[in-house]
Structure of Fe2OG dioxygenase domain-containing protein:
Amino acid sequence: MSLDGRPGDRREGPSPVTGNGVVLEDSNRPALAPMSSQRLRLIPNKDHNPDNYDDMELDFSSSIFTSLERFLPPSMLGMPRHDKVKFMTEILLKYLPHGERNRVQKHRDYRQKIISNYQPLHRELYSMHPATTFVAPFLKAVSDNTEESFRRIMSEPSPGVFTFEMFQPQFCELLLSEVENFEKWVNEAKFRIMRPNTMNKYGAVLDDFGLETMLDKLMENFIRPISKVFFAEVGGSTLDSHHGFVVEYGEDRDADLGFHVDDSEVTLNVCLGKQFSGGELFFRGTRCDKHVNSGSHSEEIFDYSHVPGCAVLHRGRHRHGARATTSGHRINLLLWCRRRIFEDYKGVGVSELWDRVKYWAASWASVTKDFKDYSYSTIMRDMAAAVN
Ligand SMILES: O=C(O)CCC(=O)C(=O)O
Ligand SMILES: [Fe+2]
């Protein structure tokens, strides 16, 4: 497949709206060129300040639309948000295989059904309140925002594995009780819920019952600044989407979790409680995608015992698993933080861009093959197709 041969797409014209220009959404405006004849640009318009789509009902995460907007043809940049969304959705859906498209739609209906029927127990959890969520030293470190301030509260017991105290006990309790309340509702309503991934038979996706916005803030304002310092080479500074869930172990729950890598650039894993023994995380080093299954060196072997309120932060590709929880009940919050491909396009040439898309698509295909989760690999394949 070549990126050359469609010179029209390469033309970089001035955009009708620049900077923070306010665009009024006028449904009576004359139609511009038919959307279907328009194509994405190969090179994003770096000067364009994209709209925010957080408040809209969308088929894909709002961050995809914000990122993709820089690739819109110049004549479309000033259009009302609804029109841009329509155009971008058409492109994204066009390149999704049929089964995938059905799945996206089904998942959207599923979430909608939960959100319109489930009554949250602790509404205060659904927006981010840093002062009641985090312990003071963590808040201070993030507000100082330097490597030194992070190192002051973090240990790095094994290269690339960072541990630190993060949540207040009261926050853990509230979240545990909200999860319990959600599960009670699921049982009473005989609602079948989707599990966080194919590895866990228990647990719940927090994003599916309304916590997505709060977790987005958690990632953007707290995890991204730390990842920018410690995980820059896997895109730590441009994390822009997440998969947030809880896993549950113990009697009548999952026992352990096999050796794996996560479908994330950076993973935050925080123990919420309750009382348990066992359940240690074991780490076995990071590998490039070609050597995911090769053996471990002794210096890479590291075991970690979970402590309620405390977090572990590591690269998604850092190989790990969890030993059996031998008594009690352990619940952990997992935030798989991801970076979509679009930011990579900044200032790179077309051939390099294409190489990167191929590289990411290949690497994520190998990492995600065990996960049914619609995510990165699909979007990247779509985008590769869309710019071609
Ligand atoms: O049980 C744990 O603490 C680890 C969970 C985990 O690695 C995952 O869900 O990806
Ligand atoms: Fe994991």
The CA atoms of residues 157 and 322 lie 17 Å apart. The chain has two domains: 7-21+33-94+342-386, 124-339. The first strand starts at residue 155 and ends at 158.
